[in-house]
Structure formats: C-alpha cells, structure tokens
C-alpha cells in the first residue's frame, strides 16, 4: 500500500483482548484512523490494523490485531496470540463484570502469550465515568500494580488517552526488544 514496508526498522504485533463491547474495536479505529462508531457492530473481516510510529530514528510498524467477535464465545485461539509482543487488555468502567473478567483474560494471556509480553490494562468509556461508573480508577490501578501491568483509563468516544495507551505499550515493547 505504501513504501513503508521496505523502510520500516521493526514490525511489532500486538493484540486487543477483553470482554465483548468494552470498546476494543473503537479504540483501534481511533488509534489507526481517528474514527469512532456509535453503532459499531462486532468486527467482521478485518482483523488487524497498522499504524506507523517513529521512535528516535527508528521506524516502527505496529500491527494491532482485533478479535472478529470470537471473544463472545471465549473462542480466541493460540494463533491470535502467536508472536504478539504486547496486549491491550480492555474492560468497561461502567460494567463491573468486565473488570472481574480481567483475571480470566490474564490467565489466558499467560497461557498462550509470550512470557515477557507488555500488557496495558485499559479501563475504557471514561466519558461515562461521572454518570455510570462501576469500577473506581483506584481498583484498576491497584490490580495493574499487583499484576505488573501498565494502566490507563481511556475514552474512544472522546479520544481521551487512546494515543497514550497504545504508545505506552509500543514504547515499552521497543525498550525491551532493542
Ligand atoms: P468491542 O466489542 O470490544 O470491539 O467493542 P466496540 O468497539 O464494538 O464498542 C461496543 C459499544 O461501545 C459500541 O456501541 C461503541 O460505540 C461503544 N463504545 C466504545 N468505546 C466507547 C467509549 O469510549 N465511550 C462510550 N460512551 N461508548 C463507547
Ligand atoms: Mg470488536
């Protein structure tokens, strides 16, 4: 599509995981295309997106995988995780259940993923925080600390911290890998 493939110094694969409807696909479209969809349907077809990032004098191509709705059936397979250096583990701050399930996702991640994978725990839908929050920021931060993850609250809708969450992960991968 562009000439970047030949010029890029590194290609990183990262994955999006977390319960259905927490906002994974919208976080990715916000990061890769600066788009948001209120009526977003479960992802069909396209399973990853790219974004090119410059760190220092190195060009990094981040390939971010999104589930095609398999998370509904807990049917994400090991091939999804294969080769991934990072993960954004997303929950919805307005749905406690999605936060409780973070532990299940971590278990799966540790079973199928690389041992030194960079994981960012993301509490999404921050824009709804004032009216319908069910998970405190402290709970998220504390779980992240216990599990050794980075942490961030985001809003794909209002474009809050989305760039930061992805770049946090990509920068850490870069530090570890190079
Ligand atoms: P996925 O199943 O995890 O990929 O979730 P989607 O990205 O498809 O989003 C599920 C629903 O949540 C859709 O109706 C989105 O419009 C909505 N949504 C996603 N992110 C946000 C957000 O940051 N704030 C709000 N208010 N809604 C969001
Ligand atoms: Mg989706």
From TrEMBL:
It is a lipid-anchor. GO terms for molecular function: GTP binding; GTPase activity. One of its GO terms (cellular component) is endomembrane system. It comes from the Eukaryota. Its main location: membrane. Keywords: GTP-binding, Lipoprotein, Membrane, Nucleotide-binding, Prenylation. It is found in: Endomembrane system. Belongs to the small GTPase superfamily. Rab family. This is Small GTP-binding domain containing protein. The chain holds residues 2 to 179 of 225 of the full protein.
